[in-house]
Design brief:
Elements: E1 2-3, E2 11-17, H1 25-39, E3 45-49, H2 51-57, H3 64-70, E4 73-76, E5 85-89, E6 95-99, H4 108-111, E7 116-120, E8 141-144, E9 147-149, E10 171-178, H5 181-195, H6 197-204, H7 213-224, E11 235-236, E12 242-244
Parallel strand pairs: 2-3, 2-7, 3-4, 8-11, 9-12
Antiparallel strand pairs: 1-4, 5-6, 7-10, 8-10
Helix pairs in contact: 5-7
């Protein structure tokens, strides 16, 4: 089920939003879309969600004109429930657990209505026009492999490599891709890794039970590079590194 325009533009931004009992991803998606509309030239936005979350967006909670203005396409993709519980830190002193629905993120190459797509997480805010440049570059696939926090410090070691002596980590927070054969291969490989995640967790030696798309894309890129570190096969997004806020940060200003 889709709510979309007849002829989609060539370029645009996509997001997934599946609400749970703790986190209002739909509201986060609205905020992210408003930033896209305010700062980007390639500002068409497609939201992929389920029937329940779409019903929430269509309820009296939100102004219908706001929803129509921020989302050019709403694509319904219901998925089967798979337990994937994540521990969240709301400041350094409080934690809570919530379902983290991300198992179908690799399907974006089929779900996106655009020929060239920037896929972002709903908690990623675009505050300038730098990412517009990626649509003009001759690179089928781009994402970030470096990140700095709000104090310009590098990420925790487990956010740099899958383990201390493991492969480099790529961030799936923002992914640019086109619908080339190379990108189709990448997303098919990502799907294979997701379906065999326990094996690849053993093979690459990383801990934890949470399914992380950061790890899945990192393994896919490593395999596509012939089990070597990336050597230009995948480009980094404009800006060279991603800015992020750690959940344990206590934001004062």
């Amino acid at each position: 089920m889709e709510r979309r325009k007849i002829t989609p533009p060539e370029t645009g931004v996509c997001m997934f939003a599946y609400n749970n009992d703790e986190i209002d991803y739909a509201r986060l998606a609205i905020i992210a879309a408003l930033h896209i509309k305010a700062n980007m030239k390639n500002s068409q936005v497609a939201l992929i969600t389920d029937t329940t979350t779409e019903g929430y967006l269509s309820s009296d909670t939100f102004d219908s004109e706001l929803i129509d203005s921020v989302f050019d396409y709403i694509i319904i993709k219901n998925i089967n429930y798979e337990r994937n519980v994540r521990v969240h830190h709301d400041s350094p002193w409080y934690t809570f657990k919530a379902q983290f629905t991300n198992q179908n993120k690799h399907e974006i190459i089929d779900l996106s209505p655009f020929e060239k797509t920037l896929l972002i997480d709903t908690d990623f805010l675009i505050c300038n026009s730098k990412l517009d440049a990626v649509f003009e570059l001759d690179a089928p696939l781009s994402m970030w492999d470096h990140a700095l926090n709000l104090e310009f410090r590098i990420a925790h070691p487990e956010e740099q490599r899958l383990r201390s002596t493991g492969i480099n980590m790529w961030w799936s927070t923002a992914i640019y891709f086109d619908k080339s054969d190379f990108c189709q291969l990448f997303f098919d490989l990502w799907n294979h890794i997701r379906n065999n995640y326990d094996f690849y967790k053993f093979r690459y030696g990383f801990p934890g039970v949470l399914y992380r798309t950061d790890y899945a894309v990192s393994i896919a890129i490593h395999i596509l590079n012939g089990m070597m570190n990336n050597d230009g096969l995948v480009q980094t997004l404009p800006g060279e590194f991603m800015r992020f806020m750690d959940q344990k940060d206590n934001i004062v200003e």
